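Structure ticket #2291
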Amino acid sequence: MRTVVTCQMAAMVIAALAAVAVPARAVADDVTVFAAASLTNALDRVAAAWTLETGYTAVMSYAGSSALARQIQHGAPADVVILSSVDWMDALEHSGDLRSGTRADILGNTLVLVAHGRDVAPVTLDATLDMVGLLGDGRLSMALVDAVPAGIYGRQALASLGLWDSVAPLVAQSDNVRTALSFVARAEAPLGIVYATDAAVTDNVTVIGTFPADSHAPITYPAAITAQSTSAAAQAFHDYLTSGTARTIWAQFGFSVLH
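Resolution: structure written out below.
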């Protein structure tokens, strides 16, 4: 009788351990992705497709590229990082936070001027534009012009066109480009500078001008696996970012595919 009870107890212990072990393996195979806020809608779609194909889960954290890079440098547990800035990815590479050989430039984008509302008349983005007059008593919504890529590109473009000095006192800065977009969408600012892909996700703004490509540095999105990643699925997700399925989704959301 004692032998039977002992065997039953042993079987129960083994079953309990197995029940704990299975979720632990599943969590280890999940991928934590730190990504630029401008990727939100498209990357959510890419991640959902990846999950359907593989059964793994990608956990997303979106923010400005500068904030994400600093978090990783301070030990945040990201497996894959996708930024909208070559410079901030350079910073991660120089600090030893990227897995060697995994960095790749995967996407490009376009910088646009948006206005609140639909069917707003277009403007010509050149040195003759009276942006101060267009703003009236309002503000120009931008991401942080000294730290966040969309803000940096925007400042470069305005400076290149000779508009920055006059409009700088009227800029309202946000910690990421999606927040800058939301201010215009909610009519809290009449104009904003965002990526073309951001403008496409809301019906409350109109693109009234596209900045010349040569007025700012190329808008490039590099992706890489972090040096501290322990996820068994990190490489598979990184590779999926340039798969046929992902390329179709990126194009649908208006990104140019580089890789």
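Closing remark: Residues 2-29 form the longest helix (28 residues).
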